[in-house]
Specification:
heterodimer
Chain lengths: ~230, ~80
Protein backbone atom coordinates (compact mmCIF):
# COMPACT_ATOMS: atom_id res chain seq x y z
CA UNK A 1 0.00 0.00 0.00
CA UNK A 2 2.69 2.45 1.07
CA UNK A 3 4.82 1.30 -1.84
CA UNK A 4 2.06 2.03 -4.36
CA UNK A 5 1.43 5.39 -2.73
CA UNK A 6 5.11 6.33 -3.10
CA UNK A 7 5.17 5.19 -6.73
CA UNK A 8 2.06 7.29 -7.33
CA UNK A 9 3.72 10.31 -5.71
CA UNK A 10 6.82 9.97 -7.90
CA UNK A 11 4.66 9.65 -11.02
CA UNK A 12 2.63 12.72 -10.01
CA UNK A 13 5.89 14.62 -9.54
CA UNK A 14 7.02 13.66 -13.03
CA UNK A 15 3.65 14.68 -14.50
CA UNK A 16 3.93 18.06 -12.75
CA UNK A 17 7.49 18.69 -14.03
CA UNK A 18 6.82 17.58 -17.60
CA UNK A 19 3.46 19.36 -17.79
CA UNK A 20 5.17 22.63 -16.92
CA UNK A 21 7.89 21.92 -19.48
CA UNK A 22 5.24 21.15 -22.09
CA UNK A 23 3.18 24.28 -21.50
CA UNK A 24 6.14 26.67 -21.42
CA UNK A 25 7.95 25.13 -24.39
CA UNK A 26 8.47 27.37 -27.39
CA UNK A 27 10.26 25.91 -30.41
CA UNK A 28 13.22 28.00 -31.52
CA UNK A 29 12.94 29.31 -35.01
CA UNK A 30 16.62 30.18 -35.45
CA UNK A 31 19.98 29.01 -34.11
CA UNK A 32 21.40 30.95 -31.20
CA UNK A 33 24.73 31.30 -29.43
CA UNK A 34 27.38 28.72 -30.11
CA UNK A 35 25.16 26.66 -32.46
CA UNK A 36 24.91 29.64 -34.81
CA UNK A 37 28.71 30.02 -34.71
CA UNK A 38 29.20 26.35 -35.63
CA UNK A 39 26.65 26.50 -38.44
CA UNK A 40 28.11 29.69 -39.93
CA UNK A 41 31.84 29.10 -39.55
CA UNK A 42 32.06 25.28 -39.30
CA UNK A 43 32.63 24.69 -42.99
CA UNK A 44 35.23 27.45 -43.19
CA UNK A 45 37.15 26.63 -40.00
CA UNK A 46 37.10 22.83 -40.10
CA UNK A 47 36.39 22.05 -43.74
CA UNK A 48 34.06 19.13 -43.02
CA UNK A 49 30.89 18.82 -45.08
CA UNK A 50 29.20 16.98 -42.20
CA UNK A 51 28.77 19.51 -39.43
CA UNK A 52 28.05 16.85 -36.79
CA UNK A 53 31.48 15.35 -37.42
CA UNK A 54 33.09 18.79 -37.25
CA UNK A 55 31.59 19.26 -33.78
CA UNK A 56 32.26 15.70 -32.55
CA UNK A 57 35.88 15.42 -33.70
CA UNK A 58 37.21 18.95 -33.60
CA UNK A 59 35.16 21.40 -31.55
CA UNK A 60 34.23 18.75 -28.98
CA UNK A 61 37.11 16.35 -29.65
CA UNK A 62 38.00 16.06 -26.00
CA UNK A 63 34.52 14.64 -25.26
CA UNK A 64 35.09 12.00 -27.94
CA UNK A 65 38.32 11.01 -26.22
CA UNK A 66 36.34 10.64 -22.99
CA UNK A 67 33.68 8.51 -24.67
CA UNK A 68 36.33 6.21 -26.09
CA UNK A 69 37.88 5.90 -22.64
CA UNK A 70 34.47 4.95 -21.20
CA UNK A 71 34.08 2.24 -23.86
CA UNK A 72 37.58 0.96 -23.08
CA UNK A 73 36.72 0.88 -19.38
CA UNK A 74 33.52 -1.05 -20.13
CA UNK A 75 35.43 -3.64 -22.14
CA UNK A 76 38.00 -3.97 -19.34
CA UNK A 77 35.31 -4.40 -16.65
CA UNK A 78 33.51 -7.07 -18.69
CA UNK A 79 36.80 -8.89 -19.24
CA UNK A 80 37.50 -8.66 -15.50
CA UNK A 81 34.12 -10.01 -14.36
CA UNK A 82 33.85 -12.81 -16.93
CA UNK A 83 37.20 -14.16 -15.66
CA UNK A 84 38.15 -16.52 -18.46
CA UNK A 85 40.79 -19.05 -17.62
CA UNK A 86 43.08 -20.83 -20.05
CA UNK A 87 40.64 -23.74 -20.35
CA UNK A 88 37.79 -21.45 -21.45
CA UNK A 89 39.93 -19.78 -24.08
CA UNK A 90 40.79 -23.04 -25.83
CA UNK A 91 37.67 -25.12 -25.37
CA UNK A 92 35.55 -26.25 -28.29
CA UNK A 93 31.87 -25.41 -27.89
CA UNK A 94 29.56 -28.24 -28.79
CA UNK A 95 26.63 -26.48 -30.38
CA UNK A 96 23.38 -27.76 -31.78
CA UNK A 97 24.46 -27.05 -35.32
CA UNK A 98 24.08 -23.75 -37.08
CA UNK A 99 21.47 -23.26 -39.75
CA UNK A 100 22.73 -23.68 -43.30
CA UNK A 101 20.94 -20.48 -44.29
CA UNK A 102 22.85 -18.48 -41.71
CA UNK A 103 26.22 -19.92 -42.74
CA UNK A 104 25.69 -19.28 -46.48
CA UNK A 105 24.24 -15.82 -45.95
CA UNK A 106 27.02 -14.85 -43.56
CA UNK A 107 29.68 -15.74 -46.15
CA UNK A 108 28.17 -13.20 -48.54
CA UNK A 109 27.17 -10.59 -45.97
CA UNK A 110 30.22 -10.38 -43.67
CA UNK A 111 32.63 -8.82 -46.25
CA UNK A 112 29.92 -6.40 -47.35
CA UNK A 113 29.08 -5.32 -43.79
CA UNK A 114 32.80 -4.89 -43.00
CA UNK A 115 33.25 -2.79 -46.15
CA UNK A 116 30.21 -0.68 -45.27
CA UNK A 117 31.57 -0.09 -41.76
CA UNK A 118 34.93 1.03 -43.18
CA UNK A 119 33.09 3.27 -45.66
CA UNK A 120 31.06 4.87 -42.88
CA UNK A 121 34.05 5.84 -40.77
CA UNK A 122 36.29 6.89 -43.66
CA UNK A 123 33.56 9.16 -45.03
CA UNK A 124 32.58 10.44 -41.61
CA UNK A 125 33.41 14.02 -42.61
CA UNK A 126 31.20 13.87 -45.72
CA UNK A 127 28.22 11.61 -45.03
CA UNK A 128 26.19 10.85 -41.89
CA UNK A 129 27.87 8.55 -39.41
CA UNK A 130 31.46 8.28 -38.31
CA UNK A 131 33.81 6.39 -36.08
CA UNK A 132 31.32 5.09 -33.53
CA UNK A 133 28.75 4.06 -36.13
CA UNK A 134 31.35 2.44 -38.38
CA UNK A 135 32.89 0.60 -35.45
CA UNK A 136 29.49 -0.69 -34.34
CA UNK A 137 28.74 -1.89 -37.88
CA UNK A 138 32.08 -3.74 -38.04
CA UNK A 139 31.33 -5.31 -34.66
CA UNK A 140 27.95 -6.50 -35.93
CA UNK A 141 29.78 -8.25 -38.81
CA UNK A 142 31.96 -9.95 -36.18
CA UNK A 143 28.79 -10.91 -34.27
CA UNK A 144 27.35 -12.49 -37.42
CA UNK A 145 30.55 -14.43 -37.99
CA UNK A 146 30.53 -15.68 -34.37
CA UNK A 147 26.90 -16.80 -34.70
CA UNK A 148 27.50 -18.57 -38.01
CA UNK A 149 30.57 -20.38 -36.72
CA UNK A 150 30.61 -20.57 -32.90
CA UNK A 151 34.00 -22.26 -32.79
CA UNK A 152 35.82 -19.68 -34.88
CA UNK A 153 38.98 -18.58 -33.12
CA UNK A 154 39.27 -14.82 -33.25
CA UNK A 155 42.87 -13.83 -32.88
CA UNK A 156 43.03 -12.09 -29.55
CA UNK A 157 46.39 -10.44 -30.21
CA UNK A 158 45.18 -8.78 -33.41
CA UNK A 159 42.22 -7.22 -31.57
CA UNK A 160 44.41 -5.98 -28.71
CA UNK A 161 47.04 -4.53 -31.01
CA UNK A 162 44.52 -2.80 -33.30
CA UNK A 163 42.81 -1.29 -30.27
CA UNK A 164 45.99 -0.12 -28.55
CA UNK A 165 47.60 1.32 -31.67
CA UNK A 166 44.40 3.18 -32.62
CA UNK A 167 44.01 4.62 -29.14
CA UNK A 168 47.62 5.77 -28.92
CA UNK A 169 47.54 7.23 -32.44
CA UNK A 170 44.37 9.15 -31.61
CA UNK A 171 45.99 10.76 -28.58
CA UNK A 172 49.25 11.39 -30.46
CA UNK A 173 47.37 13.14 -33.29
CA UNK A 174 45.65 15.24 -30.67
CA UNK A 175 48.95 16.19 -29.04
CA UNK A 176 50.42 16.94 -32.48
CA UNK A 177 47.64 19.51 -32.84
CA UNK A 178 49.07 21.44 -29.87
CA UNK A 179 52.43 21.84 -31.60
CA UNK A 180 51.43 22.21 -35.27
CA UNK A 181 48.02 23.92 -35.02
CA UNK A 182 45.67 25.71 -32.65
CA UNK A 183 45.33 23.21 -29.82
CA UNK A 184 44.57 19.68 -28.68
CA UNK A 185 42.85 17.68 -31.47
CA UNK A 186 42.95 20.58 -33.92
CA UNK A 187 42.48 19.11 -37.39
CA UNK A 188 44.62 21.62 -39.27
CA UNK A 189 47.85 19.64 -38.75
CA UNK A 190 47.61 18.78 -42.44
CA UNK A 191 46.05 20.92 -45.15
CA UNK A 192 42.27 21.26 -45.20
CA UNK A 193 42.09 20.23 -48.86
CA UNK A 194 39.18 20.86 -51.20
CA UNK A 195 35.81 21.09 -49.41
CA UNK A 196 33.65 18.01 -49.92
CA UNK A 197 36.28 15.59 -51.25
CA UNK A 198 37.54 12.42 -49.53
CA UNK A 199 40.92 13.95 -48.67
CA UNK A 200 39.62 17.06 -46.97
CA UNK A 201 38.90 18.40 -43.50
CA UNK A 202 42.52 17.96 -42.38
CA UNK A 203 43.05 15.19 -39.85
CA UNK A 204 39.34 14.35 -39.33
CA UNK A 205 39.26 11.26 -41.63
CA UNK A 206 42.44 9.92 -39.99
CA UNK A 207 41.19 10.52 -36.45
CA UNK A 208 37.78 9.05 -37.24
CA UNK A 209 39.33 5.98 -38.83
CA UNK A 210 41.30 5.35 -35.63
CA UNK A 211 38.15 5.89 -33.57
CA UNK A 212 36.26 3.44 -35.80
CA UNK A 213 38.98 0.77 -35.55
CA UNK A 214 39.16 1.19 -31.78
CA UNK A 215 35.39 0.99 -31.25
CA UNK A 216 35.09 -1.99 -33.61
CA UNK A 217 37.93 -3.83 -31.87
CA UNK A 218 36.53 -3.14 -28.40
CA UNK A 219 32.97 -4.32 -29.14
CA UNK A 220 34.31 -7.37 -31.01
CA UNK A 221 36.42 -8.15 -27.98
CA UNK A 222 33.36 -7.95 -25.69
CA UNK A 223 31.37 -10.27 -27.99
CA UNK A 224 34.27 -12.69 -28.22
CA UNK A 225 34.57 -12.77 -24.43
CA UNK A 226 30.86 -13.54 -24.03
CA UNK A 227 31.05 -16.27 -26.67
CA UNK A 228 34.02 -17.87 -24.94
CA UNK A 229 32.29 -17.74 -21.56
CA UNK A 230 29.33 -19.83 -22.77
CA UNK A 231 29.10 -23.41 -21.63
CA UNK A 232 28.29 -25.98 -24.32
CA UNK A 233 24.72 -25.77 -25.52
CA UNK B 1 -2.09 13.82 -49.31
CA UNK B 2 1.19 15.64 -49.04
CA UNK B 3 4.50 14.29 -47.80
CA UNK B 4 4.27 15.71 -44.31
CA UNK B 5 0.95 13.98 -43.56
CA UNK B 6 2.44 10.66 -44.67
CA UNK B 7 5.46 11.15 -42.41
CA UNK B 8 3.27 12.04 -39.42
CA UNK B 9 1.05 9.00 -40.07
CA UNK B 10 4.08 6.68 -40.26
CA UNK B 11 5.57 8.21 -37.12
CA UNK B 12 2.33 7.78 -35.14
CA UNK B 13 1.98 4.18 -36.35
CA UNK B 14 5.55 3.35 -35.35
CA UNK B 15 5.11 5.09 -32.01
CA UNK B 16 1.98 3.08 -31.17
CA UNK B 17 3.64 -0.18 -32.29
CA UNK B 18 6.73 0.46 -30.17
CA UNK B 19 4.53 1.29 -27.15
CA UNK B 20 2.76 -2.07 -27.56
CA UNK B 21 6.09 -3.89 -27.92
CA UNK B 22 7.53 -2.09 -24.90
CA UNK B 23 4.50 -3.23 -22.90
CA UNK B 24 5.11 -6.81 -24.09
CA UNK B 25 8.78 -6.49 -23.11
CA UNK B 26 7.82 -5.53 -19.56
CA UNK B 27 4.88 -7.87 -19.05
CA UNK B 28 5.81 -11.11 -20.81
CA UNK B 29 6.65 -14.10 -18.62
CA UNK B 30 9.31 -15.50 -20.94
CA UNK B 31 12.56 -13.54 -20.80
CA UNK B 32 13.53 -14.43 -24.38
CA UNK B 33 10.28 -12.88 -25.69
CA UNK B 34 11.01 -9.76 -23.61
CA UNK B 35 14.52 -9.43 -25.05
CA UNK B 36 13.28 -9.75 -28.63
CA UNK B 37 10.48 -7.24 -27.99
CA UNK B 38 13.01 -4.77 -26.58
CA UNK B 39 15.17 -5.28 -29.67
CA UNK B 40 12.22 -4.55 -31.96
CA UNK B 41 11.45 -1.38 -29.98
CA UNK B 42 15.02 -0.26 -30.75
CA UNK B 43 14.52 -1.06 -34.42
CA UNK B 44 11.35 1.06 -34.54
CA UNK B 45 13.16 3.83 -32.69
CA UNK B 46 15.89 3.81 -35.35
CA UNK B 47 13.24 4.20 -38.08
CA UNK B 48 11.81 7.15 -36.13
CA UNK B 49 15.28 8.74 -35.89
CA UNK B 50 15.61 8.34 -39.66
CA UNK B 51 12.27 10.09 -40.18
CA UNK B 52 13.46 12.91 -37.91
CA UNK B 53 16.49 13.42 -40.21
CA UNK B 54 19.14 11.96 -37.87
CA UNK B 55 20.64 9.13 -39.95
CA UNK B 56 23.77 8.85 -37.80
CA UNK B 57 21.77 8.29 -34.61
CA UNK B 58 19.58 5.81 -36.51
CA UNK B 59 22.70 3.87 -37.54
CA UNK B 60 23.95 3.64 -33.96
CA UNK B 61 20.53 2.63 -32.64
CA UNK B 62 20.10 -0.10 -35.26
CA UNK B 63 23.61 -1.54 -34.81
CA UNK B 64 23.95 -1.30 -31.02
CA UNK B 65 20.39 -1.07 -29.67
CA UNK B 66 18.72 -3.75 -31.72
CA UNK B 67 21.73 -5.80 -32.84
CA UNK B 68 24.54 -6.08 -30.35
CA UNK B 69 22.66 -5.52 -27.07
CA UNK B 70 20.03 -8.14 -27.99
CA UNK B 71 22.85 -10.59 -28.71
CA UNK B 72 24.57 -9.80 -25.42
CA UNK B 73 21.26 -10.21 -23.53
CA UNK B 74 20.91 -13.67 -25.05
CA UNK B 75 24.48 -14.60 -24.11
CA UNK B 76 23.81 -13.53 -20.53
CA UNK B 77 20.44 -15.34 -20.42
CA UNK B 78 22.09 -18.52 -21.66
CA UNK B 79 24.84 -18.20 -19.06
CA UNK B 80 22.36 -17.58 -16.20
CA UNK B 81 20.19 -20.57 -17.23
CA UNK B 82 23.21 -22.89 -17.27
CA UNK B 83 24.30 -21.55 -13.94
CA UNK B 84 20.95 -22.18 -12.24
CA UNK B 85 20.26 -25.59 -13.74
Amino acid sequence: MLRNLLIGLVLAGFVFIFYNLYTTYEPKTELTGIAAHYAENGALEVGAANLVTAVVVTYRGFDTLGEITILFLTASIIAFFLKLNKEDEDKIIIHRGTSELLITASQILIPMIMLFGAYVFMNGHLTPGGGFQGGAIIASAVALSIMANPNRQINHNVIIWVESISGVSFVLLGVLGIFLAGGFLDNKIIGLGEFGTLFSAGAIPIIYSFVGLKVGAEISNILNKYQKSQKES
Amino acid sequence: MNNETVYVAIAIGIGVLSLILAFIAVQNEKLSVSVIAAGVVSLFASVLFLLMAAPDVAMTEAAIGSGLSTLIFFYVLNKIKRHNA
